[in-house]
Amino acid sequence: MWVSFFCLIVIYTAVHITKCQTVCNRQEPLEWNLNKHTIQMNWTLIGKLCKSDFECWGSPGEGQVRQPYNFPQLCPLQLQHGDKLLMYADETLKSYGIRLFNVSREDFESCITNADLKNQFVFPHKIKESEHVEAKWITPGHHYFIALHEGDSQLCKLGLRLNVTVKTQLCRASPFLRLCSGNGLCRTDFYKGAYHCQCHHNYFGRFCERFDACLDNPCQNKGVCLSNGSTDPKDRTYKCLCPPHFTGKRLHCESNIDECMSAPCLHGRCSCVDLIDKYACFCLDGFTGKTCETDIDICKDTSFNVSLCFNGATCIDGEGSNFTCM
């Protein structure tokens, strides 16, 4: 037996020297699959080993915390609730003889257990052929497994320990409804405890059941968009609160209100130029003021002090640029 164990250590050491920087293969984000799968897990010291939180878990996203594991272990495994787990050992470990145990996180980290091992057997015998793990060991949550030989923890410390996370989906209110109401994807990653909805554009809510047209900000010219946030696909209305002096046929505040429509320039004889939030009047001769409201006394406003009337006649002002000499 000691000879077998020595050979096992030699094999592990040779492989570990060349492959100690294994980075576990992770596909993130993971999408919920409606079809259940059977996942095969090979217990081996050759490959599939990681020894740091980065190698095992990768870089956490914003607001996520790394797993504080810095010891050799098999690459962590993530399952959907309902998946089946099939475990087997490579030929070397199968001939050497190992048993698998479900343990606490503390025992997983230390490879030392003081509990009653009989109640922690994953299988009632040494692992030989491929065997299905009972459902009680893979309920939603975190599960920790270690391999021992005749109660000895050396194999565990060399890396024969496995962290399994089983996740459920929180993407629909009823099993009779579509995932994320058909308006999003049901996803997770290695740092989340379950599958959640990632909504498509314009959809929101826990199950992407609500629609918000205002997410596109359709209102122009700094208009404010108000959406009814309806769950009814036939009633996805919104409206724009336009700033002063803006409107639009499509109610998007795309048009500047034409202040000249109210004919602000008096007498109907002035030309109005529409501007944003204002207008300008170009008055005819004889009128002045913002709206051409003032009739200039042309007899008193002569240029260059030139009299409009000759031979002593008196100038009498008329409308606009008209005058009469008396």
From TrEMBL:
Domain EGF-like: 167-209, 210-254, 256-293, 295-326
Gene Ontology molecular-function annotations: calcium ion binding
Keywords: Developmental protein, Disulfide bond, EGF-like domain, Glycoprotein, Membrane, Notch signaling pathway, Repeat, Signal, Transmembrane, Transmembrane helix
Signal peptide span: 1-20
Membrane topology: Single-pass type I membrane protein
GO BP terms, alphabetized: establishment or maintenance of epithelial cell apical/basal polarity; exocrine pancreas development; heterophilic cell-cell adhesion via plasma membrane cell adhesion molecules; Notch signaling pathway
Name of the protein in its database record: Eyes shut homolog
